[in-house]
Amino acid sequence: MHFAIITEKNLDGSVRTLRSTVHPPPRELEERAKTLDAHLARRIPSIEAKLVKSGLLDEAVPNPGSKKASGNVLLWHALGRELDRICRERHVTGRRERRWLWDAIESLYGTERIKRARRGRTRLHFEYCYRLGQFPRKVAERLNWSEWVYFFDSPTVREEQRADRWLMGTAKRTRNIDRRLFRRFAENLNKRIKRMDTSVLSDGELFQIYDEIWNATKKELRAATASRKPR
Questions:
Q1: CA-to-CA distance for 221 and 215, rounded, in angstroms?
Q2: What single string gives the DSSP state of each residue in 137-195?
Q3: What's the confidence (pLDDT) of residue 231?
Q4: Model pTM above 0.85
């Protein structure tokens, strides 16, 4: 299904930028973009109000450019679940289309309560929330938000989102994921496959590499712990 979305508007409310999978977009697609615009104009404030009511988000809206709290994993997981619902309902399926959606929320619909400063074109706060929202809450809350950001920030994970599916399976088999183990695993993962084109690998081949690095990391940390024990 073709997709179009308004990502920027002029001061008078007219469309400044419309992103579309078809160029030029037919009139029908432009009308769908306007319908989506009206929906998001209601939906995003409603989501923020819901997060405020649940106690996850402050009621006061910070001033633009002011220092904001980093938030916590429960807040961003809840937001991610809401973003996932929007994507499902509006058939936003690809990464490119999701990026357009995040741009629209950033510039048109979200307040400073949920927006965070961009740290580059590929490091997108709403994308990280969306990805976290794919995990069950019980898995998400095992780690702090900073650990999740570190994982999603890793170049080998940013571009290879099958890592999320592997992690879900590993989390189900592992009673406790230690924060130190998780961070060290991400470091070792980047070292091992930093320049590897993982898109050519099957799920089985890729997940085998992840398993090998995960198990090697656990052995590495056990050895480090044992070496620090008094003899």
A1: 10
A2: HHHHTTS-HHHHHHHHHSHHHHS-THHHHHHHHHHHH-S---HHHHHHHHHHHHHHHTT
A3: 59
A4: yes
Residues of the chain by 3-state class (helix, strand, coil), percent to 5: 60, 5, 35
Residue found under tokens 């398993």: 211
Q: Which of 205, 155, 152, 210 is nearest to 185 (CA)?
A: 210
């999740």: which residue's tokens? 148
How far apart CA 149 and CA 79 sit, in angstroms, is 15
pLDDT band for position 12 (cuts 50, 70, 90): very high
| Cβ 79 vs Cβ 114: under 8 Å | yes
92 has a pLDDT exceeding 90: yes
AA identity, residue 65: G
SS3 7: strand
pLDDT of 50-89, one tens digit each? Answer: 999 999 999 989 888 777 777 799 999 999 999 999 999 9
- Return the higher-pLDDT residue of 197 and 202: 202
| Calpha distance 69→56 (Å, rounded) | 12
